[in-house]
Known about the structure:
Elements: H1 11-46, H2 51-72, H3 100-103, E1 113-116, E2 118-119, E3 122-123, H4 153-171, H5 178-190, E4 199-201, E5 206-208, E6 211-215, E7 250-254, H6 256-263, H7 265-337, H8 343-408
Antiparallel strand pairs: 1-6, 2-3, 4-5, 6-7
Helix pairs in contact: 4-8, 5-6, 5-7, 7-8
Amino acid sequence: MMFMRTKVQSPSRLRQAGLSMVELGVAMAIVGVIGIITWRWVADTRAPMERSAIISQLAEAQAAVEGFVLANHRLPCAASSTNGTEDCGNSSAAAVLLPWRALGLPSRMGQLHYGVNRGGSLDLASAPAASAFPDLNINYSPTIPVLAVLTDTDVNDAADLVTAAITAANGRRAAVNGLDWCRVVRRLATDPTVAGVLSAGNLTASIPVAFVIAHPGANGVFEGSNVAGGAAGFRFDLPGRAQDNDFDDLSVAVGPGDLAARIGCVARLGAMQAAAQGAYTAFDNVRVVQEYWSLRVFDIAQAESALEAAETGVIMAAMNAALAAGSAALSVASAANTEGITIFGLVLAAANVVTAGFEVGFAAADLIEAQQALQDSKDKEVASRAYVIEVFKTFTQALTAANQMDEKGLNP
């Protein structure tokens, strides 16, 4: 009788086999979780976007475009490829994509179409020419007239501040910022007939817009006038076009007037214009007060001349009085020597003495009057000088405020 021997596995080998099964189970579980996540991600990316999500994307893109203006003083150019980089060298027919990289948006936004107005002198995607000036492009005279009494430290300091403010204003004439771009937008809003202006609509009816952003909708295909190419180039449908089986695109279009209001152009340009007008009015006051001050200085010069004349008159009157007295003495001596008293000669000599006395009195009165007139002229000049300082300060403050408004541009 034969006996079969059974191979008995050791406990250690059984434990190793058990561990392998556990590890295999964990690995399978991890693979299953990853598979589920991948499947859900693929399903989500391929599933049609809901209308609310599309509108949210358009709003995010619009906010990014308008924020770009605040940082760069222009609208972004469209991109010609999905890399999201601006292509400012191509026309709107060649560059039709949203420049998501330049706007700091995620790459998924590269599917959006984007159009910006590039119409000739009203090109909103190019740096604007300097056209907003804190001094209204008026040549203020930075030279304060040097008058005869310009020795007052306060006057000189005020005049130096005026000169510095004018120099700063002149330096802003070539500086470009959002205010200059706002001037372009405002011109587009008032004159949309310039060739090349971007429009939204169709071949028969459209309106000028500053920029348009279009989404292909749930089917991911651009339709209607949002399709690129064709003899008419690139066009956009107006937002709100009726949805049907052949069209489900969604878009947002911003007109120049609406864009100017949203960016803050209306308020900032208005404030800038008011500040510049205030500075110009203050400068008119400066010119008037300078003329008045010149008259006051001239009045002092005239009063000083009158005083010198009065002093000379007193000296001459005193000399005449002395001569009259001497003449009277000679007349009396002559009459005594000739033993013939000439009544007429004595009377005439006495009259000359009296007249000379009156002349001395009048000359002295004139001198006092001239001295008082000179003092009055000096007092008026001192008062006008104080007024000049205040007017200089007012003009400096007004022009400095306009300079600061221009420097700030559209920034908060």
